[in-house]
Design a protein that fits this description.
Layout: E1 13-18, H1 25-37, E2 42-47, H2 51-54, E3 59-61, E4 72-73, H3 91-112, H4 116-122, H5 126-153, H6 178-215, E5 228-230, H7 239-251, H8 258-261, E6 265-269, E7 275-279, H9 305-309, E8 314-317, E9 323-326, H10 329-343
Helix pairs in contact: 1-3, 1-6, 3-5, 5-6
């Protein structure tokens, strides 16, 4: 027996049951979601085919029946329950349906609200930000990730994002422990699913921030100028947001002078010093197809770039002419403006 000072130091034990031996994509992803939901608790995975042991578990995945009632996410679903878009639920979908809100809120509060001041520059309050994020992220994670797992379980198509799970099954010619390999793949899958959720939260926050910059300016100071959008970091997920923004500009019949409102370049402070800019893709299907490329004469150049461009602090242009660097912010702006001028000749 262990004596503790208070309830806060006591971990709740969660038992998750599933069948022994061979494991599948659907159950591994479903259990990984349950583990993320209960990551502050002590989790014990029971892999057995003895129903009397499974009955004692808080959750059972891929054994018996159940669509989530009483924590039972069965192999056989009583009813082929469907989403609004007609896609059939599987175990991962049911678990995400039941725990997605809780997981997103927990991640938002732990990971995102560390930067509360930044969040509240983008939204009126952190509470409004959390509500916006929760609604969008739950839908997008389901649509982009979980539905593929459910389709795999229902024999419709392969879940390519999680094909690696099969590579953790024992070799057919060597005796290996299913339990050891299951533990390994579950740990990896849990990390991947959690990082994917964080990535989706980042995308939703980026969408709001970028749209604010394009509509109201850089925290209300500067609107889009010279077809260049400034963002704080290169890896901010901007591509889809900017392409959607450009498409909306082009399709809106009420907007005049469309060419001036299109984002053609995105610029940012570079992590190794100085500044950099990337060309904006014209569509999502081929992100290497640029609205305005940097001139082919610049491609692959570094030491000769100042002489070629006339921009004294130009540092480098990628060999595929989608990315340039300069020492100063002013230098990057000059390179982007020059590229547009030469492209329009």
């Amino acid at each position: 027996m262990k004596t503790v000072k208070g309830l806060k130091s006591v971990k709740r034990r969660i038992l998750i049951g599933t069948h022994s031996n061979i494991f599948h994509i659907g159950e591994v992803v479903a259990i990984s979601i349950l583990c993320i939901a209960h990551e502050d608790d002590e989790i014990v995975i029971i892999r057995t085919k003895k129903y009397e042991e499974l009955e004692k578990c808080d959750y059972v995945v891929n054994m018996g029946e159940g669509n989530g009632e009483n924590g039972r996410y069965g192999h056989y679903h009583r009813v082929n329950e469907k989403r609004k878009d007609g896609s059939v639920f599987g175990n991962a979908g049911f678990v995400w349906r039941d725990f997605g809100d809780q997981i997103i809120k927990k991640i938002f509060d732990k990971e995102i609200l560390k930067n509360k001041k930044v969040i509240e520059k983008m939204f009126v309050t952190a509470e409004i930000a959390r509500g916006t994020v929760n609604e969008q992220v739950k839908l997008e994670v389901d649509a982009d990730l979980i539905q593929n797992v459910d389709m795999h379980q229902n024999g419709i198509k392969l879940a390519k994002d999680f094909n690696y799970i099969h590579s953790f099954l024992p070799k057919w010619y060597v005796e290996e422990s299913y339990e050891t390999l299951f533990d390994e793949v579950l740990e990896i899958t849990q990390k991947i699913v959690k990082r994917y959720i964080i990535k989706k939260i980042d995308e939703v926050l980026a969408q709001d921030e970028i749209n604010n910059r394009l509509t109201y300016g850089f925290y209300g100071n500067k609107r889009l100028k010279n077809n260049i959008l400034e963002i704080p970091k290169q890896h901010m997920p901007w591509i889809n947001v900017v392409i959607d923004y450009n498409n909306n500009i082009m399709q809106d019949k009420n907007i005049k002078e469309k060419e001036q409102k299109i984002v053609k370049f995105v610029m940012f402070p570079y992590h190794r010093g100085g500044w950099a800019a990337q060309c904006v893709p014209s569509n999502k299907k081929n992100i290497f197809e640029k609205i305005v490329p940097f001139p082919k004469e610049w491609a692959g150049e570094s030491t000769n770039l100042p002489k070629i461009t006339g921009v004294n602090d130009a540092i480098y242009c990628h060999k595929t002419a989608f990315f340039v660097r300069a020492t100063s912010r002013e230098g990057i702006i000059k390179l982007c403006m020059l590229a547009q001028k030469l492209y329009n000749k």
